[in-house]
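We modelled the chain as a single entity of 125 amino acids. Its sequence is:
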Amino acid sequence: MSDELGMFARGIETLTARKNPAELYEEIAELARRYDIERILVGLPRHMDGREGDGAQAARNLAAGCASVTGLPVILWDERLSTKGAERLLIEADLSREHRRRIIDRQAAQWILQSYLDQRRGPAS
């Protein structure tokens, strides 16, 4: 989620897929209520040439489920290079491979959200 000014992304929890997607949607809805979320961002896998990648339909399904359960706007956002960027950042922070493995998804999600926030803010003055 972002700070109140929409400047910085931060991780709160990592949720995992469930056999029953309704459980995941309810967890997301609970987090949205707890943190007074205004909109939800879902990473959309794309290839470097812009074509949708593997998992794009799953991302679209997740977005539709989140919108249905929460009633909030859901934005699909390009997630190209998010995992690579997050991994590079964690390596620069000198975290062990094991520690990186445990937190990479949260860091990649922060990377995606920060990209969205930066785009909304526009070019630096």
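As a brief sanity check on the tokenised model: The CA atoms of residues 33 and 70 lie 9 Å apart. Helices lie at 21-34, 56-70, 82-92, 97-121.
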